[in-house]
Amino acid sequence: MKPTSTLEAHAGYWLRYVSNHVSHAFAKNVEAQGVTVAEWVLLRQMFDTGAANPSQLAEAIGITRGAVSKLIERLCQKELAMRSASEGDRRYQTVELTLVGTRLVPVLAQLADENDREFFGHLKPDERTKLVNLLQDIVRRHGWKDLPVN
């Protein structure tokens, strides 16, 4: 009879262990700035995209239109984003960052950079590159498109 494997024998166990700690620390830091990690992901996408319609944003970050609409609503309530209706068709709307939202993105990106340094700064540059490449290879092999927002 084959022995039953331990938790620690699985790569997934260690990925989850590290991910939980890295993600928790980052979530705590962005929440101190008044946003959730999911809101940060959308803010960062909007920073690059500029004015876009909600369905474009949903597709870009790999979440449902309903989920992106809820995130957009929260960002609008926080005055980090604003909606604009099309003159020709009031049902068609675009959303973009406000000036406050645009100024917040680099602050949050700095927090992401600091979080990376805190957890992965001890790695040699080639080790970090190899780790990222291995993780990206896993993502590609599984065809995952959705961004991690939780």
Number of extended strands? 2
Rounded to an integer, what's the Rg over CA atoms? 19 Å
Q: How much of the residues is beta strand, in percent?
A: 5-15%
**Number of domains as seen in the coordinates:** 1
What profile does the largest beta sheet have? 2 strands, antiparallel
Class, according to the CATH hierarchy? Mainly Alpha
The secondary-structure element order is HHHHEEHH
- Judged by helices, strands and strand pairing, the structural class is mainly alpha
Q: Write the CATH homologous superfamily.
A: Winged helix-like DNA-binding domain superfamily/Winged helix DNA-binding domain
Say what the CATH topology is: Arc Repressor Mutant, subunit A
Parts with pLDDT < 50 across at least 5 consecutive residues: none
Major beta sheet, strand line-up: 1-2
Number of continuous helical runs: 6
Average pLDDT score = 93
Helicity level: 55-70%
Distance N to C terminus = 39 Å
Overall shape: elongated
CATH architectural designation:
Orthogonal Bundle
Structure description:
The protein starts with 10 loop residues before the first helix and ends in an 8-residue tail after the last helix. It is mainly alpha-helical and 150 residues long. Strands 1-2 form a two-stranded antiparallel ribbon. It has 6 helices and 2 strands; from the N terminus they run H-H-H-H-E-E-H-H. The chain has one domain: Winged helix-like DNA-binding domain superfamily/Winged helix DNA-binding domain (Arc Repressor Mutant, subunit A), CATH 1.10.10. Helix 1 (11-31) crosses helix 5 (99-120), helix 2 packs across helix 4 and helix 3 (54-61) crosses helix 4 (65-77). The longest helix has 22 residues, at 99-120. The mean pLDDT is 93. It has helices spanning 11-31, 37-49, 54-61, 65-77, 99-120, 125-142, and strands at 81-85, 93-97. Strand 1 and strand 2 form a beta hairpin.
